[in-house]
Specification:
Strand content: 25-35%
Shape: rod-shaped
Radius of gyration: 34 Å
Structural class: alpha+beta
Helix content: 10-25%
Number of helices: 3
Mean pLDDT: 77
Length: about 160
C-alpha cells in the first residue's frame, strides 16, 4: 500500500513538471501576443491615444518626451509662473499664436536670422510702444502696406 502511494505521488509530480513553460519557446510569438494588449506607460502628465498610437500630454501645447515620460513646453517656450499647465513664450517680444501655438513677434517686429524680434534695418523701436517700429530718418515715412520706409518725396506733404 505504501508503494502505491509513493508511485502515485511520483507519477503526479512528473505530470505537473510538464506544465512548466518550455524554455526553448519562440520569444517572437510571446512578444507578439503580449503587444496586442500592451498599453505604453505615459507617466502622470500624459495619456495614451489609441488612434494616434502615442502618448498625448494632458496640458494643451506641451510635447511628450518618451525617454523621460514627462510633458515639456516646446523649445522656445517655458511654463507660466502663475499656471504651470500653460506654456508662454520665453521672449517678451513674442506672443503665442492661439491657433498654431507658435511664438510670433509682436506688432511691427520681425524675426532676424537668429530668431530675435527686431525692427527692419532702416527703422527703430518707437519710444512709446516698444512693439512698433518707426523710421530712423525723420524725413521718411513708413509705408503702411509694406512696412518699408519711403523717401521724403514719396509720402511727405511738406513743401520746400
Amino acid at each position: 500500500m505504501l508503494l502505491k502511494h509513493f508511485l502515485l505521488g511520483a507519477l503526479l509530480a512528473l505530470s505537473s513538471v510538464t506544465a512548466l513553460p518550455n524554455p526553448e519557446a519562440d520569444l517572437h510569438d510571446v512578444e507578439a501576443r503580449d503587444n496586442k494588449n500592451h498599453r505604453p506607460r505615459c507617466g502622470k502628465d500624459a495619456d495614451f491615444d489609441r488612434m494616434k498610437n502615442k502618448c498625448i500630454c494632458k496640458d494643451e501645447g506641451k510635447e511628450f518626451d518618451p525617454e523621460h515620460k514627462i510633458c515639456r513646453c516646446p523649445e522656445d517656450q517655458m511654463e507660466d509662473r502663475h499656471d504651470p499647465h500653460k506654456c508662454v513664450c520665453k521672449d517678451k517680444d513674442k506672443d503665442k499664436d492661439s491657433m498654431t501655438g507658435v511664438c510670433k513677434c509682436k506688432g511691427d517686429l520681425k524675426p532676424n536670422r537668429h530668431g530675435e524680434c527686431r525692427c527692419p534695418e532702416d527703422q527703430r523701436r518707437d519710444r512709446h510702444d516698444p512693439h512698433k517700429c518707426v523710421c530712423k530718418d525723420k524725413d521718411k515715412d513708413k509705408d503702411p502696406m509694406t512696412g518699408v520706409s519711403r523717401g521724403p518725396e514719396a509720402g511727405s506733404s511738406r513743401s520746400p
